[in-house]
Design a protein that fits this description.
single chain, 6-stranded antiparallel beta sheet, 15% helix, alpha+beta
């Protein structure tokens, strides 16, 4: 997060479109994206209210609004039905100064040199007809891009985010976790074109590595390349720069994305599960006191705890009549061998799915790593070795299952 913020806070955000919204909707709670098709095509936009038009920087020069700031290339008037006389004059002045303006389902009359649109498809066609292109170009659902410019050397930084849940910007409940983190939200083989002169670099905010892109096409003020993979909810930063001398000083070994044919599938293997079950302490009777009971289930296939065929002795030890009522911490451990051609300089990641629970840690050959519950991926490349390796995944469930055993309700847990 700190690496990402270093780029976002130090660069000058350059946004493709300004979207003027009605006074009444300025106070609405925005949930989701207004123009998803625009985002899916690479455009970025800001929502602005009429009061923003009175800002001293809100002027048009060379057909661009606020050139010293976000440098909007066009203005979309979105469902606006009331404007003050000052606001109307501002729009009229913008249109005369050459700023492309599109009225999107807006009841505004008397403006010259503006266009009208009823659908997002119309908006895309008009923007293309007007020659208004995004700083980023692609045709991918859920991918969102914002460009930040270093005004000192002209480097363009692009923040790309796989927004796996674009229809809801609010907090998700437990039932939406699988949808957010599912494999169907992974973006693969995405071709993007970024505006900028020079050489493209990839900045991995998770590892801190900076690597020059080896395979790209240089165009007229653009670069085009392919992103191999982006998991749902993850972000990457790319830079297009002529300042290669400074970038080379910090450039590390290029990260080679893991391809499907190179993956080691451990999901079907037997993992040793030691379960630390939480339940009420029978000695105190205080609901605030817990008793932790450890049960070693030996080697099991991965799955829900409720599907474990526990013995009566194990259930009695846990104090429950069914595994679906178990809550606590599970430690899954596996020992496996890397392929004979393994090279730990190639890098590696581990991916896992776990439903509504939380992975607390991933331990690789004795080294504990914090888990990333946002992306379900952990970089383990520097910790794996040739030959035998041991990985432990520590999973924390809620207390809901055991609470039901004592009161009501349960949820499934398990890797």
């Amino acid at each position: 997060m700190s690496r990402t913020q270093a780029v976002l806070q130090n660069g000058q955000a350059k946004i493709d479109l300004a979207v003027l919204i009605d006074k009444e909707s300025s106070y609405d709670f925005e949930c989701g994206n207004r123009f998803q098709k625009l985002l899916d095509s690479g455009y970025s936009y800001n929502l602005v209210s009429e009061s923003v038009l009175s800002h001293p920087c809100a002027v048009v020069s060379d057909g661009v609004l606020a050139p010293e700031g976000p440098a909007y290339k066009a203005l979309i008037v979105d469902h606006v039905h009331t404007l003050s006389p000052i606001g109307m004059k501002r729009l009229a002045d913008y249109a005369r100064a050459g700023l492309p303006i599109i009225l999107y389902d807006s009841a505004i009359n008397g403006l010259q040199n503006v266009r009208m649109a009823d659908t997002e498809e119309d908006l895309l066609e008009m923007l293309n007809a007007l020659g208004v292109t995004g700083y980023a170009k692609y045709d991918v659902p859920r991918l969102e891009a914002t460009m930040y410019q270093d005004v000192t050397d002209g480097t363009n930084y692009y923040y790309l985010f796989n927004n796996a849940y674009p229809d809801n910007a609010a907090m998700m409940d437990n039932a939406q976790g699988d949808y957010y983190k599912g494999i169907e939200k992974v973006l693969q083989d995405v071709t993007v074109t970024l505006e900028g002169n020079g050489v493209p670099y990839r900045l991995d905010p998770y590892t801190g590595q900076v690597a020059q892109m080896a395979d790209y096409i240089a165009g007229d003020g653009t670069v085009t390349f392919t992103i191999d993979r982006m998991s749902g909810g993850t972000a990457m930063i790319y830079a297009v720069t002529c300042n290669t001398a400074d970038f080379d000083k910090v450039a590390g070994k290029e990260i080679v994305p893991v391809k499907e044919e190179d993956a080691i599938d451990l999901s079907g293997e037997a993992w040793r599960l030691i379960l630390h079950s939480y339940g009420p302490d029978p000695d105190t009777g205080d609901p605030g006191d817990s008793q932790i009971t450890d049960v070693d289930y030996g080697l099991l296939s991965l799955g829900k705890w409720s599907d474990i065929q526990a013995t009566k002795e194990q259930l009695d030890k846990l104090g429950v009549r069914d595994m679906k009522y178990v809550s606590g911490t599970g430690e899954y451990t596996i020992t496996f061998a890397t392929p004979e051609n393994w090279d730990n300089y190639d890098g590696a990641i581990i991916e896992y799915g776990y439903g509504r629970d939380q992975v607390g840690a991933v331990i690789v050959n004795g080294t504990e790593l914090p888990a990333n519950n946002a992306s379900d991926r952990v970089d383990v490349g520097t910790l794996l070795k040739m030959g035998e390796n041991t990985i432990t995944i520590r999973l924390h469930s809620t207390l809901y299952g055991r609470t039901y055993a004592e009161h009501s309700g349960y949820l499934d847990q398990g890797v």
